[in-house]
Amino acid sequence: MTSSALGRDFRLLWSASVSSRFGDSLRTPALALLAVTLTRDPRIIAAVTVAGQLPPLLFGLLGGVYADRWDRRRTMAVVDGVRAAVVAALAVAVVLDRAAVVTLLVAAFLLAALGTLFDSASFALLPTVVPPATLPRANGRLQAGSAVAGGFLGAPAAGVLFATAPALPFALDAVTFAVAALLVLALTPPPVGAAPAIRRGSVWSEIVEGMRWLRGHRTLWRVTLLAAACNLAISGLMAVLVLYALDVLRVPPAGYGLFAAGAILGGVVGALGAGRLAARLGTVPALRAVLAAQTVALVGFALARQPVPGGIALAVFAAGSVVWNSLSASYGQRHVPGGLLGRVGAAQRMVAVLTAPVGAALAGLAAAAYGTVPVAGAAAGTFALVTLAAWRTLRPVSPVPTAAAPTSDRTVARHPSR
């Protein structure tokens, strides 16, 4: 998956990302399982999940600022080192039977807060590791590796490890963070004096600068808004997916894991094909085509009443989601000036995920009142509208020779739209 053509530094970055993702996939379900051993109050158990979801909304933009201020390689290594210490402390607390609900809440919040800085730095670092033309393929390889490590390896192992010893998933997660930190430190450091001196303003002014840049780049801003609209539908569908699979598609409870694995496999296939699709169509046309394919897949999913056709449709949809993520990330990495990558990337992520809790809440209310079938239909309808909007508004921009930090995409596209 790592492809020697992408170089040594990419292999190190890929290995670090996959190691961290494997650890995440062990820790996340283990936190839920540990919470259940401490309390059966669904409000408290949900609070542990919420504690891990709030930091990206609260600190995402701040993480982007410091990802642009600090050396990104060292920032990622330090963050992973601190995360290793946090999870190791949690493992010790579990061994000593000192883990309380407050402990889980604090750990989940701290890890997610640190993750906002890591994600911003990682997003901004990749364009310095691989050539611009290979960014779609590089992002696809990262997505594929994360899907395999998280979906096929980590998630199934989490329950087994927790049953063996409740502290074991957390201890292994700490090891994966430590390994990832060492791998990132092994990346080739930037040449001394390579980064020009930049006059920094206040944190708030830098946040505003990143938001203003994103808002001023028409294509990137439209991609961000389209992603937010997609997340409204995706979050709603995921919120009721298990009920839809069991009640509408008649997936046997024992077969739900296999049903979910099909979607993960679709994501891996999509990730590995993202680079080829971008090379064949160009990135912006590929984004439009992906939305159209996902709409067709969702219509098929909403009409399916059997496990196999429903599972195939969901796998195709998942493949499209991963391709979209890979190509939209590559588009930003190629067009945003290096000194703004952390802030603009953080702003994109924050805007894109704002609709997710709204979608989940609406889906829950709709499913309670009308059943899960209308939720799937609404998701398909939303994607149809997003696809129409994309075909009307997304257009490749012509490259112009400039390296300045611009305010519109006429002065941004230093490379042809992929």
TrEMBL record:
The chain crosses the membrane at residues 44-65, 77-96, 102-126, 147-168, 174-198, 219-246, 258-279, 286-304, 310-329, 350-370. It is a multi-pass membrane protein. Keywords: Cell membrane, Membrane, Transmembrane, Transmembrane helix. One of its GO terms (cellular component) is plasma membrane. Pfam families: MFS_1. GO terms for molecular function: transmembrane transporter activity. Its main location: membrane. It comes from the Bacteria. It is found in: Cell membrane. This is Major facilitator superfamily MFS_1. It comes from Micromonospora lupini str. Lupac 08. The lineage of its organism: Bacteria, Bacillati, Actinomycetota, Actinomycetes, Micromonosporales.
